[in-house]
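Question:
Write out your own:
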Amino acid sequence: MRNRFDEQLAHLNDELTTMGALCEEAINGCVEYLTQGDAAMRDAALEADRQIDQKERDIEQLCMRLLLQQQPVATDLRVISSALKMISDMERIGDQATDITEIVKHIKNSVSDGKTHITEMARATIKMVTDSVESFVKKDISLARSVIGQDDAVDNLFDKVKSELIEAVRGESDSAEVLIDLLMIAKYFERIGDHAENIAEWVIYSITNKRPG
């Protein structure tokens, strides 16, 4: 019985890894659409979000089977409950990547220095998502804690982008609408970082029975 349970837990890890990779694809797609205006990358981001939604349902069902058909001990229960929390955050990451593509439709042909720093934010959030999921699979508390620390860097980048865009609005009134849209995109990336931080906190909880903070 336990061997079967361990096999299903390993499958849960694989499914979470796949969902995390789809989050990376969604973020990458919306960034490439922003910076290159590539409609194919927009479609890739939207498709990744669709698959994320399906993966969330699949993992929910797997977790329910683990809870109902097996006899998980306290540690197992924390792992399963943490996984359910994590997929909720990952589903929101996919949604926010889609929200970014919707904004980019209106500004993809506009040029702004702010895009450079937004791209930097995007790369930082992708790393946070990747590391947070990897920390769960490897049961790596140090990596999870490093993700929490990385969120400060993303927040600092957001503050930098915000300051630059506000200054640009003052000097380029004709581009104000585009600059405000870029600020909204930066805000979405900041939220993605927050979701990755949440995932890392649930990883720590699953191992230690305590959430940081």
Helices lie at 2-36, 39-69, 74-107, 114-138, 141-171, 176-208. The radius of gyration is 19 Å.
